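Field notebook, page 502. I keep forgetting to write these up properly, so this time I am using the form the group agreed on. The chain and the ligand, nicotinamide-adenine-dinucleotide, are recorded exactly as supplied. Prediction of the bound pose follows.
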Amino acid sequence: MSPSAVISDGHTASGTTGLNNGRSDFKHAPLTWTNFSNIIDGKLETTKETRCGINPATEQSNPSVPIASKDDVDKAMSAAQKAFKPWAAEPYAARQKAVLAFADGLEAEKEAFSKFLTQEQGKPIQFARMEIDIAVAWIRATASFELPVEKTDAGDKEIVVRYTPLGVAVGIVPWNFPILLAVGKIAAAVVTGNPIIIKPSPFTPAGGLKLVELGQRYFPPGVLQALSGDDNLGIWLTAHPIPAKISFTGSTATGKKVMESASKTLKRVTLELGGKDPAIICDDIDIDDVASKIATFAFLNSGQICFAIKRILVHEKIIDEFRNALVKHTKLLKVGEGNEEGVFLGPIQNSMQFEKVKGFFADIEKEGMTVAVGGKNPGGKGYFITPTIIDRPAEDSRLVLEEPFGPIVPLLSFANDEEAIDKANNTFYGLGASVWSKDIKRTNNIAQQIEAGTVWVNCHFEMYPNIPFGGHKQSGIGVEQGLAGLKSYCNSQTLYLRKSNL
Ligand code: NAD
C-alpha cells in the first residue's frame, strides 16, 4: 500500500458509527424551552438537585437546570471515551457534513435561541440575533478547513506529517457569549474527531444545554455532551484523568487554576482569557466619527466583552475635544431591558459581576475621579449600569489596571507615539488593541509594537472566523478559530513510511 493510500485525514481505521444511529428521536422532537437537561451519552438526563439562573433585567428566575454530580461526570467521560475511536474513524468529510448540518439546525432555530439569550444573558435582542448569526458563520468556517497532510520524499521513504485527534475534550464557557463561545469549541473539536463535553457557565447554563440538545440530531451518542453544575463541576472536569484537552474561555484568574489542574495529566490547554484593550487615538483623526465608534466598541454588550475597549488613550492635543464628542455619543446609548425598542446596553449579566462593577463606581468618590459622563446608576430592579467615562484617572488606579468587565472606561492622554505604545503595553494583559489615525504609515508602525494577540487599525472588533484569535501575555495560551484553532485539537504525528518491502 502506498503511503498516500494510508493517509487520509489522520486515521487508518475504517470503522463507522453510522452518523444517524439513535438520532431519529432527536431529529423529530422539536426543541422545548421549558425543560433543560444534561446530555449524557445521547440522552437527556435530569439530576436530583437543580438550580435556577436569574434573568438579569427582571431578577426573576429562569427555568431550572441540573446540578451534575461527580457520578454524572464519570458517566459523561466514559461515554465520550467510548465514542472517540468510532468518531475519529469517520471520514473527515462525514464529520464536516455533520458539523455543517448542525450549523443549519442552529440557523433554523435562530429566533428561539435569540429570544432565550436575551432572557438568560440580558443582551438586547438585536445583539442576541447577531450572536446566533456569528455562531452559525463560525461553525461553517470551521467546517470548511481541511487538515493538511504534509509529505516529503526522502528516497526510500516518504515522510508524512499529519494531524490526529487528541481524544476527549472539555469546553468550559463563560456567560458573556454563551452560545457563540460554545459553538467555536464544539465545531473545532468534533470536526477534527474529538468528542467534547461542554460546561456552560452556571450564570447562563440553559442556552448551552439547549444548544447541545440540538446537536444530538447530528452527532452520535457521546460525541457532544453537556453538563451543567455548580462550582465543583469545572474542577471535576479539569482534574479528570480521561480528557486530553481543555478548551477554556474565562477570566485570567480561573485560567491559571485550569492550567494547574490540567497539568496533572499534561492535558493540552487552550486558554482564552481576560483583556484590557487600549485604543490609541492619534491627533489627526475625524474626532466625531472616531468618538462614535469608540463609544460603541467600549459599551457593546455592556462592556462585557473580552476585547472591548477598556482604555481610551488620546493624544493630548485633542483630548478635550475628543472627550466632548465621546460624551455626546455615549449619552445616545440607551440602557434597558433587552426587548425594549432602541436599547443598546442590557443589564450586567449577574449579581456577582454587578457588585464587582459597582466597586469601580465606588472608587470614583473614594479617589476623587472626574466623571466625563455617567457615574450614577439607576437603582431599582435589574442589574443596570450607566455607561461611564472617567477623565484621566490616576494611572495606577484599579480602573486603569484591572478589567471591570462592565461599562466604565478610563480616558487617558499621551504626548507622542512612543508614550502611547508604552502606556498601551503597560499591562499583564495582551488580548487586543486598536490604533486610530489617518496616517496609515503611522498606525501600522504603532500596531506592530503593541504586545497583543490582535491589533486593529482604524477599527476594533473586526473578527473573521477563519482567522486565528488568541491572547499574548496573561490573556491566554494558544488560539481558537482558523486552521491553527483546529490543529489545537490534534497531535502532530510524523510517519517515516517505507516505499518498498525489505
Ligand atoms: P470565569 O473565569 O469566572 O468563569 C468561566 C468558566 O469557568 C465558567 O464556566 C465557570 O463556571 C468556570 N470555572 C470557574 N472556576 C473553575 C475552575 N476552578 N475550574 C474550571 N472551571 C471553572 O469567567 P466569567 O466571569 O464567566 O467570564 C468573564 C471573563 O472571561 C472575563 O475576564 C473575560 O475577559 C473573559 N473572556 C475571555 C474571552 C477570550 O476569548 N479571551 C472571551 C470571553 C470572555
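OBSERVATIONS:
- DSSP finds 17 helices and 24 strands in the chain.
- The two ends are 14 Å apart (CA to CA).
FOLLOW-UP: compare against the apo run.
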